[in-house]
Amino acid sequence: MNAAEILRLQDLLPTELGSDEIREAFAEDVLRSSVFSAKMASVPYLEDVREVCAAVLEGRMSDSEARSRLGEALERMGHSPLDEGGLENPASERRLNLIIETQTRMAASAARLMAETPDTLDAYPGWALRRFDTPAAPREDWPARWNAAGESVGWEGAKRGVWYGSGSTVAFAALKSSPIWAALGDGAGGFDDAIGNPFPPFAFGSYMDWEDLDRETCEKIGLLEAGEEAPAPGGAALSPDDEELLEAARKAGWPGLFDDILGGAAE
User: Fold this and answer.
1) Does pTM surpass 0.70?
2) Can you give the pLDDT of all 267 residues of the chain as single tens digits?
């Protein structure tokens, strides 16, 4: 199951609610398996969002082409990029960039989780979280976010503080099974821009992403004992079997996402 296929299986969630109201009104697992945008009740537009983001993931459309197509759809609805409002304006470049970036990265992270096997998990038991691009105004609070998330889960499967990876890139390290990932997405410590994902992006507009950590590194920095079996993300036993695949998807936060394809194998 690739990222584009995952995205195309997501439900549409039209709503007139704002961002904060959406987070209060809907469970996180509903939001993770839905395509939505604050104060956007147009189903045809959300269908466009889903399709252009899938096309970006497939390499058939660039980000700028996707932004242009969505802008044209919004113009037909009476919205203009010249309107004031910034992120509040559905047609603003900032808003469109945020939608495309968030939807494509969420699907890519879910696909990455689903691609894990016992062999890949044994070879690469952990993830480093680091910034892969430089935004105009990078957040400086990631050490505080990481510390708050780690404290909230008792540092289970996670390394305290900052771990410096190759090239002295600032990064944070934890096992793929660590609950710290869910705590980051839940905004542990009171960070209200968190999305609710147990995978990147953990916050709106964030460029922090995962990098695989091999077994040697995980053992060296104390995340695993030498030869210790690596626990699977969410505790799921990952395998190609349909029933276990479906269960892993649900544990990863995508309940019901694969029911149409697998016929509800785990019901």
Assistant:
1) yes
2) 789 988 898 889 999 998 888 888 887 777 878 898 889 999 999 999 999 999 999 999 999 999 999 999 999 999 988 877 778 899 999 899 999 999 999 999 988 888 888 899 999 999 999 888 766 667 788 899 999 999 999 999 999 987 765 544 668 999 999 999 999 999 999 998 888 888 999 988 888 999 999 999 999 999 999 988 888 776 443 344 445 445 545 555 554 444 444 444 333
Q: Helices 242-251 and 93-114, interaxial angle, to 10°?
A: 140
Quote the CA–CA distance of 76 and 66 in Å, as a whole number. Answer: 16
Query: Hey, where are the domains in the chain?
Result: 3-114, 118-231
Helix (H, G, I), strand (E, B) or coil at 128: strand
